[in-house]
Amino acid sequence: MYVILVYDISNEENGPKTWRRVFKICKKYLTHIQDSVFEGELSESQIFKLKGELKKHLRTDLDSCIIFKSRNEKWLDKEFWGREDNATSNFL
Amino acid sequence: MKQAYYIFSNGILKRNDNTLQLVYEDGQKKDIPIERVDELYILGETSVNTKLLDFLAKNNICIHFYNYYEYYVGSFTPRESLVSGKVLICQVQHNQDHGKRMALAKAVIQAASYNIYRNIRYYNKRGKDLESHMARIENLRDSINYCENIEELMGVEGNIRKIYYDTWETIINQQIDFRKRVKHPPDNMINSLISFINSLVYTKVLSEIYKTQLNPTVSFLHEPSTKRFSLSLDIAEVFKPLIADRLIFTLLNKNMINEKSFDVDQYYLRLKPQALKLITNELDQKLKTTIKHRDLGRDVSYQYLIRLELYKLIKHIIGEKPYQGFKIWW
């Protein structure tokens, strides 16, 4: 499943700490493409694992995390307006 | 969906924040999501440390190294987690018992030669006259069943390959000057290309073997010897026509690779970095290609076909179901 994850971590009540943890967890599963945006191909079970890890840190009253799912990358029209960046490649 | 990551750039690969980080020479950093990595291929000059290896082992990731001439150097594989004494004993028994070993070796050659035949047939239909080669291969295939020992079988296999390689000058639209398969070291462009792509296929098979209980050093067709993983040679035999050879035909016929992709001063031994990237990318795409599996009734990728082949082998050696080599069915 092709996934785009975006989050918004509030700065209040130890916000930076939460932000750091969330960032590190997302980094393990997805490619970091922009400040609070990640994308990549994950399986159902990996999404479940990621969700479990994130839930421990997200504060339900302050932070939000949205995950957009698409069945396959080809159902996603990706357009670059401005600088083009092929960040998700597996050839480094 | 995990995938292979290929690293061409020079730099340092390390563990950072519980994931992988590649630090380029200019100090730029790039994170690699560890949960998505299936295996790593290092084709550039990369430094790694034990901390990283420990981390990879924990995540069950193989890392394969290639040297400056794209020659396979070796792999780091995590401590074997899938071990089964029973499978190992059965595997060794099948190697030791002449009859049992011949049965497996024949099945491998049957499948491999059929796939070779299919490749030629495909190009024959596309207006290249290869009828006589096809007939000769068919004849040789009939004699596989009458082989009494491994040497004889290898002889037949060698003859089939020779006829097969003879067709390459016809199949490939470029001037390739390919008379004979030469290794150690390859002597021209096409031989280098074959060597490089075959070595990639061997490593792919090896990674898949590590995902099963089989022992990569105990083989049936090739003689199990020290210092090499001969089982991966056996299995690769079946898949080379489908994966490696077809890839070579495409690369050359579409003129994606030509003389200019090689370092001429190095006797065509070394691929230029751009060409290297292109080939591995094409191979990666190829292995991700899916087909509908007849028995499983679902889509499987070429890479997974390799694993299925190994499972079939396990079933055979523990006596559950006789092994039938993979044959192109579409």
Name the CATH superfamily assignment of the largest domain in chain B: CRISPR-associated endonuclease Cas1, C-terminal domain
What number is the mean pLDDT of chain B?
Answer: 84
Query: What form of chain B results from the Cα inertia axes?
Result: globular
Number of strands of chain A: 4
The H-and-E topology of chain B, N to C, reads as EEEEEEHEEHHHHHHHHEEH
pLDDT < 50 runs, ≥5 residues of chain B: none
Oligomeric state of the chains in view: heterodimer
The assigned structural class of chain B equals: alpha/beta
**Strand residue content of chain A:** 25-35%
**Broad CATH class of the largest domain in chain B:** Mainly Alpha
The helix/strand order of chain A is: EHEEHE
Cα distance, first to last residue of chain B?
25 Å
Strand neighbour order, sheet with most strands of chain B: 1-5-7-8
Q: Nearest-angstrom radius of gyration of chain B? A: 20 Å
Biggest chain pair interface: A-B, 17 and 23 residues
How many domains make up the coordinates of chain B? 2
User: Which sheet architecture does the biggest sheet of chain A show?
Assistant: 4 strands, antiparallel
Query: What radius of gyration of chain A results from the CA coordinates?
Result: 14 Å
Strand order of the largest sheet of chain A: 2-3-1-4
Residue share in helix of chain B: 40-55%
CATH architecture of the largest domain in chain B: Up-down Bundle
